[in-house]
Each structure stands twice: as C-alpha cells, then as structure tokens.
Amino acid sequence: LNEEGHPRPVVDIALSADGVYLAVRYLDSVWVWDWNALAAGASWDEPLLVLEASKSWMNTYFFPGNRFMTFDGSGDQTVLAYADFNVLRLVDVTTGQEIAALDHEQPIIDMSYAPDARLIALRTSIDGSTPDELGYVPDVSESGQIVVWQLGENTGQIEPEQVQAVDIYEGHQIALSPGGELVILTDIRDGEIAFYDTRQITDFRDYVHWIEVPVKGHPAFSPDGTRLVFEQEPGRKIAVWGVW
C-alpha cells in the first residue's frame, strides 16, 4: 500500500482485532488510520488521529477484542493503549478522546494484557531512564517494577485501579495470561523465565515457577492460556511450552 515507506522510523505497528484500525508507533507519536480506507486508496498523509508522545521505543497495543462499552451504554469503542514515557494512555480511537492516563514513577518499557480479567501488566525500568536522541533506552534489563492495573469489573466502563506494584531487579519482557492469573517475566540476557501469580505477588522472589531456557523474543500466551510461545533462537527456532 505504501511503496515509498514511512517518512520516519517505525517502532511498532498494531491492527485492531476487527481489522478496522491500523496504528503505527513512531519515536515521538502514534498515527492511526482506517485500514479499509487505506486499502481503498486513501492517502497515508491523512490519518484519523495523531497522538503526540515522548520519545520511546515502547510498543503500541489495541486491547484484545478491542471493545469496551461506551460510558453511556450506546455502543462499543475501540481502545488503543500506548506509552508516553512514564504515562500509559488509553484512547478511544473512534472519537480521539483520552479515557485514562495512568502515571508511573518509572518509564514504561513493555506491557501485556488479559481480556477476560481486564487486567494490564506493565514493565517499568529505572536503568537508562532517559531516552537518547533516537528515543532508545540503552539498558532495560535490570531494576524496575511490575505494575498490574485492573481496568474494570465488567461494568461497561474503564475504571483503572492499580492492584500491584512490585520492585524487580532483573528481567526484560512480560506476558500476562488470558485470565490474568499469571504474569511471566523473561530475562533475555541470562535466559530465564519466572512465573508470578498476579493475586499474590508482593516481591520479585515470589515466583511460583522458574525455568532456565534460552529466550530471545517476546513471549506470548495462547488464547486459552495453556501454551506459552517465545523465540528461542533468532530466525531459527520457536519454542512452545505447556502451562499448568
């Protein structure tokens, strides 16, 4: 659709589950397009939304299912989550309205979410907390926090409430199980995966299971939560593990 490429470095992309919206994360902003309009020949120069953000290499996500009830109960809204350095912003892309801005003491470097429990887990970092001129944080594998937010109890509204904030001293990327019971933290430097119970974690040593295995890519749970997949050898091997 765009043979000439983008005018600036692309950090990440996300497509809504219904295939309607495409979000592209640049270093200092998030642009959102109507995918069907692009496929029909609309210009890339005319996005639906341009969301300004501090320089960051943080990924951008549409929530799974990408649907929350609107506040007045009149329909659904597609919610986009993106990191603005140490602030997680939730935006209704159909209106451009910011629904919530969740502040954190440290810059956000990764996040995952659980659609069933309406939980979102974040990985923050102390080390290298100031991005360089390209927006990259040089070392995010050391100390920081796992922060878990509950976004609502099937009320049809997003009502964020922080339920956990646990200091950690190693690890890099996180993944949250579909039901929200487990959050895993991978250490791509030392090749380790730690499993935590989101209902009981109070300390980074409170893991319920720990394995030592080469892990190089971002982990992900299967939709039913019974499998965990991650890149084990870049470009060569994908590992699939059963989860109890």
Offer a quick outline of the entry.
This protein is mainly β.
- Which structural class should the secondary elements be placed in? mainly beta
What percentage of the residues does DSSP assign to strands (E)? over 45%
Count of DSSP H/I helices? 1
Unreliable spans are: 69-73, 133-140
Total strand segments: 21
* Most strands sheet: 4 strands, antiparallel
- Helix/strand order, N-terminal first: EEEHEEEEEEEEEEEEEEEEEE
Can you offer a commentary on this structure?
It is built from one helix and 21 strands. With 244 residues, the protein is mainly β. It has a four-stranded antiparallel sheet with strand order 1-2-3-4. Strands 5-8-9-10 form a four-stranded antiparallel sheet, with no helix packed on it. Strands 11-12-13-14 form a four-stranded antiparallel sheet, with no helix packed on it. The longest helix has 5 residues, at 35-39. Mean pLDDT is 76; it is low at 69-73 and 133-140.
